[in-house]
Protein 1
Amino acid sequence: MTQGPMSIDDLKRMAGTIRCDIIEMTCTAAAGHPGGSLSATDIVTALYFRVMRIDPANPQWPDRDRFILSKGHACPAWYSALAERGYFDKKHLSTLRKLGSMLQGHPDMHKCPGIDMSVGSLGQGISAGLGMALAGKLKKQDYHVWVVVGDGECQEGSVWEAAMAAPKWKLDNFTVIVDRNHLQNDFCVEDVMPVEPLADKWRAFGWHVDAINGHNMEQIVAALEAASKRKGVPTAIVAETIKGKGVSFMENAADWHGKAPCASEADQALCEIRRCICEI
Amino acid sequence: MKSSYRYILPEVQALLSSRDLFLKAKGEPTRLTYGEALLELGGKNPDVVSLDADVSKPMKTFLFAAKFPERSFNFGIAEQNMMAAAAGMATTGLIPFANTYAVFASMRALDQVRNSIHYPHLNVKIAASHSGITPGPDGVTHQAQEDLSIMRALAGSTVIAPADPTSTKMAVFAAAEYKGPVYLSFTRDPVPVLYDERFPFKIGKAVLVREGSDAAIIANRDMVVQALIAAELLSKKGIEARVIDCHTVKPLDESMVLRAARDTGAIVTAENNIIFGGLGSAVAELLVEKYPAPMKRVGVGNTFAESGPYLEVIDKFGLTARHIVKAVAGVLKRKPPRSAKSPVEPKANARAELRKSKTQAHAGRKH
């Protein structure tokens, strides 16, 4: 399936489709993490359908851009994007978390085509991405490595080990997007363990930092495309997002971090998301 | 009976009975051998990259960094980032060697080593110096007395603890050839060069380095030399102990261990590692399931060690030749009596021996 870069409106529609997939997947699985999947959806959509140099027919293409969802629990968004992009048949989405499925509760690079790194234990995907970026420079391949980390994930010390390292090697082929949805498993990030000033922290570690609205497709695409062209420094994009974005009763509710919707909740969620798609 | 040795340098054989072995025999810490081996490997294999965490001097990997600066990456004192970055590099076809001390490789960065390296079975080589309580003077925080146990517990892991500089170099080259994660453990303090270049290093294949049929001492890393010294002491008492260098803790060379149990009926393991979960446990697990035999584990007990000169520390914590001798004597007392006329049965009769042993085991149970 070959596909040119999508228009902004098409990206918005695709994000809606992916949000529907997330609701259906987690409802069918009766488990999973809808909140953080919905907050990261627009970013993941922009990457897979506009920005990244990839070939779904050749997932192991050595020169492909790499993507790592370091906050691996939000993988329903990743799986849906891969399926919608043609890496595998959409019918697999209903197998999420089931025995024998290629769609593990947290992503397995050897089970699912298009997954560039097995992730799930927070604070590691960013380091793996750093290693891929270093390898790209060493091998003189011009791919870009894109990593999405959670804001709660930024409490992991190893995130800052990676943050310290990337500017040392001037990894301008490396971009980290912080999904700043303000909620983590227990409560609000700022109540559990404050991470602010987040943009200043990345800047202080030597990164070029952009702060954007992580649900504004124009801003997302502009920031990602600028990052792909920037020279000499890695880019951190602090994307202000809403956990549960697109579903009224999930928005800004920590309870929906790791809870699946029941059938009636899923119906309501799908109605709301589809209404939004129609308004695009 | 010097001819009973295999691959052991003649000058080492001559010194095994002497108290001066560690003074007179040529030797070095295997961490330094590693650094030199990596340099040589780097010249032969352009995919090899070296990752440091601020111990490139103690591990001599600065040599690689000087010769191949573009393939060398110092992550600073940040082992977790280094391990997961190594995993990312391995996804692109590079062969990263991640160098640090064993406490940090196997414990501080264990989550990365498990989830980012072993779960996806990526081709990362973890080079760990200061393994076991080989760092005598540094004290407990730097004595990785659990590293082999921890690494052995990971699914799909390969865990290697070479005994001397000769086999260390072979292990480094073998690890680079092997596809998948390998944990290599090195000593902080010097060990004698035991082997000549004919030493047949192969991952997963233990090596019989001293013949003997009264008992078998299965050892690895810095305990192989202690086992050889112990065998000399035992020989003076008329006991001929087989010594096996079981450099690969996992996967265990089952056939070599079972053969030792069948041939000798008395097994002692010797490891500079806590007795829970390492070589001794591996051998015990195998024997209890396939060929129960009297056995004793020599290793660090349920305690942390302390600072001191290497040889004094390992002696205080029960890891020198005299402790192995004592263990062998104890196991021999528990060894079921064999038929008086043929203390050693030919290997062809192994099956019959197995049957007999089973009978004896049953008989023993009645008491």
Protein 2
Amino acid sequence: MIPEIGHYALILALSLAIIQAVIPLAGTYTNTHSWMALSRPLVWGHLLFLTISTVVLANAFLANDFSVIYVAQHGNTKLPDLYKVSAVWGAHEGSLLLWAFLLAAWSAAIALFSRNLPLPVVARVLSVMGMISIGFLLFLLMTSNPFDRTFPVPFEGRELNPMLQDPGLAIHPPLLYMGYVGFSVAFAFSIAALLGGKLDASWARWSRPWTTVAWVFLTVGIALGSWWAYYELGWGGWWFWDPVENASLMPWLVGTALMHSLAVTEKRGAFKSWTVLLALFAFSLSLLGTFLVRSGVLTSVHSFASDPERGVFILIFLLVAIGGSLMLYAWRAPYISGGGRFDLISRETFLLGNNLLLSVLAGLILLGTLAPLIYDAMEWGKISVGFPWFNKMFVLLTPFLALLMGVGSISRWKHTDAAFLVKQLKVAFIISMVFGLLTLLPMFSGGNLMVGLGMGLAMWVVTSHLVNVKERLKHKAGFNGFLRDLSGGGRSYYGMILAHMGVAMFIVGVTMVSNYGIEQDIRMSPGDTADIAGYEFKFEGVSEFPGPNYNAHRGRFLISKDGEQIAILQPEKRTYFVQTRPMTEAGIDWGLTRDLYVSLGESLGGGDWSMRLYYKPYIRWIWIASIFMGLGGLLAISDRRYRTARKRSRSTSTLTAGSSTTAATESHS
Amino acid sequence: MSRYLRFLVPLAIFAVIAAFLFKGLDMNPREIPSPLIGKQVPEFSLPLLEQPGTLITNKDLLGKVYLLNVWATWCVSCRAEHETLVQLGRMNKVDIYGLNWKDERVAAQAWLKQLGNPYAANIFDKKGRTAIDLGVYGAPETFLVDAKGIIHYKHAGPVNPDLIRDKILPMVAELRKKG
């Protein structure tokens, strides 16, 4: 009976979503205050019912209710409780429910934090959120109902994919989805602005913190996924250019471009139509990612159950959502007034460069991801685009991003003197060049150009931003001045600095691990030792031991350096009872400057095993970088500007509400 | 005018992508096309399963459109698809020839007696040589061959009623029309 409550709540949520999409928007055209005001309570009801649905599904897993097909397929009595809960989003149906739930949660957040927005804007934004929700709820109810029952009731569930039984992966999808879904807010604001015909600085100011929050979630979510792939897949890699990974990277790149473009639109009123387009694309790519993962159009190691019938539904949804919004764009964007003028050397120009590079990168990934499909459809044969191509494109373009980053953040809006830039950045440039060249010396890299380039660029990002901070604090008294700046209006500035430092760390991590990483595939007998990068790996043997829902072979390694033991590593190979696929759990000794990584291969008989041993220098920096970026984003949105903006718009709210009502009436007539 | 057209560019790009995605729904990215499509059925001369003394060759099969189904009693998926083949046999729309692959004659005959025999005849490929020539990498596999002995389609894995209705039978009709 309880699962039916979940199902019923889903249907009620759909009904509310339909009303939420129609009535408030209609209210903005007829200028009916009560219709517009309805949007907030509707959103809360919508969220309430989806919360009920989600809780009911989690409860079905916890109660081992195998009469629910989804639970029978992914639950099991022996599954630890944590994974029973994470099994809710461990497969197709449930992860869609999570999507819908998070969408409702974001809508509710808008309802909560929009007290200072003019009512027509709120009504339009929440209507658009409702429309997106309709799409997802229909998809759930028509093709992917997680509450479908089965009879006869299976005695035991088939259990969650063992690969997903991991704390990192338990929270990876919710974070990632928070990011994907979060871009729906910027999308909804843009659509609302296009509908209302008012694209101005206040639209950009409202969109900015939402976009940044979504971006923070996406950043951390992607990093978590990469970290998980690193320790769970046993290949020692951190990024595989898998279609599903690409599907998350594209919205990230476009989202990053959007954040920067929004800054220009808010501060200078420029790039308006471009910013709108990025907002549409960031969310469209999130939707496209869902389509690629769910439809079975592309092969991927993340092969969730895919199904062409679902593919047809999502494709129609994409056509309506993306096609519709781009049509609206083509119709309304020509009337968007141009922004303030700017000179060739100005912050606007550099940010435009950054935007173009990020968009081109996203476009290239889209091309590379879809290339196998395009080739197949054109009957040019089967191809697969592998990591060498993607890597080449990134190595080709990202250096320019790093260069622009240093110049752009120090230049002024509208006009910057070339002489000023040279004067400011001279020292930073020389230091970076020298540092880059130094790393080319025989004792460091022996002339490896990639290392020189990477280290030089990282140094450039760091030094140019140090100059930037120094310049900012020139007229502020010492450390106290910094603190005052931080508690005052400087947070978004320091957030930017922090996030850019993350980029520098990322460059260091990627450069080091791809040029100095060592991997060795060897056969080892108990008692054997292997020597990698000055570390001695002594293999003591493999023993068996039972886990809660699996049996494991656990290897034991003593790691020593210069005769001194520094770590014991215990890589595992697990065989889960239900889904008998073997799973590797790598043994990792982590450190800031290097990881030592052991993964068990196959048993070769007589106690011998094939092993993969890795030395991964600075690989942690890649993930720490994402923490810096995430913290930078959080710092930026805590800026006083957004709070004062809120107060300011409250005092003028009657005025704005009045003017946008006129706008609504105009567009009505 | 160009001022307005410019803003249609994103929509146009999306339309192209959507067209490919739509096409992609019908395609199977895991499907590996058989290099034999468009080529002749390889030459063979093998005994019949039903009559060990009678030989059948690729030339005997010329002159009609037929399906060549690779199967074996040790193959679990073959058992799963067998009912579908029996139904297809009852429809009398296309001849099905079996290639009994690396199997025991007695077991294979018992199987047909027990589960029904949809085949016009069965080629007994005990050593699996012809299967290798056909590029079979697992049973069941089904080939569609025209009157000139040219392979037009290959399906790896069990056939299902949808596939027969939507793909195989239309292709059969088309090949017959061509003559």
